[in-house]
């Protein structure tokens, strides 16, 4: 499976890059600000957390800068690599943004891709998202530690969104720290992972609260634990224990944010950071954070870049090719 995924990613990246040669004539390098017609690239399929984040940021930035028109472009494939590779070819253009998350760091550490976080312009980290370990309501597993024990005794299929995303990372942390032996089944998005869990293709999944809260309310799924340092404050999630409370010492936050293309004119960079700051101070941002059950830990520009460097160093310990 790992070799298959590597091959798929390489082929996807090559296809994306072949049609998007990085030339100034194509991307209009050096423009001091966006033209007004902007594309928000989402490197995952519609319906998942990244798509929701990208659309919320597009609406929020349009409200912050009324002259902008931002269209969302889902370019999924290769666990996010196709979208990032497409975006790489837009260097210098202020007319492209990308709804980013942890795969920006984990993909270059786990797959043969042509980009790293240093190739892009950090704009705005809008918050952090901790995943839940969830199972169907009829599962014999009720807690995170029970799931770990079961994985040591028999085969347990666990669904993940992307071969190198935060879901894969928490399962890898459980393997390293607790000796768990989950068999991971990668899907292209959180929506597909959820469908696989509900359809019985896998027994467990690591998913964001926003992706599963409806199923938890309906009683179709149950949450075994949250991979966070402390419990959520949101009433719908407050009763879910952390993994550490159950003796499983695993905590990992997926960040969500927006990046611009690399090689921007400094004026374009400052334009996007200023627009992001205005969005972060708006009621729309507060509503998005509440609706998606995020922790509103923000960072802008250079501070976001430093966060990415620190996150990269952390993932170097648990993600390898």
From TrEMBL:
CDD domains: PBP2_Bug_TTT. InterPro entries: BUG, Bug_dom1. Keywords: Signal. It comes from the Bacteria. Residues 1-23 form the signal peptide. Pfam families: TctC (PF03401). PANTHER family: BLR4371 PROTEIN, TRICARBOXYLATE-BINDING PROTEIN. Belongs to the UPF0065 (bug) family. This is Tripartite tricarboxylate transporter substrate binding protein. It comes from Saccharopolyspora erythraea (Streptomyces erythraeus).
């Amino acid at each position: 499976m790992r070799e298959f995924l590597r091959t798929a990613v390489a082929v996807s990246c090559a296809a994306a890059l072949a049609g998007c040669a990085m030339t100034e004539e194509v991307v209009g390098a050096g423009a001091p600000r966006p033209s007004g017609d902007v594309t928000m690239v989402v490197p995952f399929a519609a319906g998942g957390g990244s798509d929701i984040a990208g659309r919320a940021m597009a609406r929020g930035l349009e409200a912050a800068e009324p002259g902008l028109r931002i269209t969302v472009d889902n370019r999924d494939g290769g666990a996010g690599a196709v979208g990032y590779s497409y975006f790489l070819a837009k260097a210098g253009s202020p007319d492209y943004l990308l709804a980013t998350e942890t795969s920006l760091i984990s993909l270059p550490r786990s797959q043969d891709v042509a980009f790293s976080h240093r190739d892009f312009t950090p704009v705005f980290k809008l918050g952090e998202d901790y995943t839940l370990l969830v199972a169907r309501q009829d599962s014999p597993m009720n807690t995170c530690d029970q799931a770990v024990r079961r994985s040591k005794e028999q085969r347990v299929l666990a669904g993940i969104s992307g071969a190198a995303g935060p879901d894969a990372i928490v399962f890898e942390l459980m393997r390293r720290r607790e000796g768990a032996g989950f068999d991971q089944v990668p899907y292209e998005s959180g929506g597909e992972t959820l469908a696989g869990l509900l359809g019985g293709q896998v027994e467990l999944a690591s998913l964001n609260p926003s992706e599963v809260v409806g199923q938890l309310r309906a009683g179709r799924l149950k949450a075994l634990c949250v991979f966070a340092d402390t419990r959520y404050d949101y009433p719908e999630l407050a009763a879910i224990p952390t993994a550490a409370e159950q003796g499983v010492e695993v905590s990992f936050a997926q960040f969500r944010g927006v990046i611009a293309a690399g090689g921007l004119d400094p004026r374009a960079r400052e334009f996007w950071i200023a627009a992001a700051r205005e969005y972060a101070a708006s009621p729309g941002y507060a509503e998005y954070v509440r609706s998606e059950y995020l922790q509103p830990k923000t960072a802008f520009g250079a501070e976001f870049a430093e966060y990415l460097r620190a996150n990269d160093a952390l993932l170097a310990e648990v993600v390898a090719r």
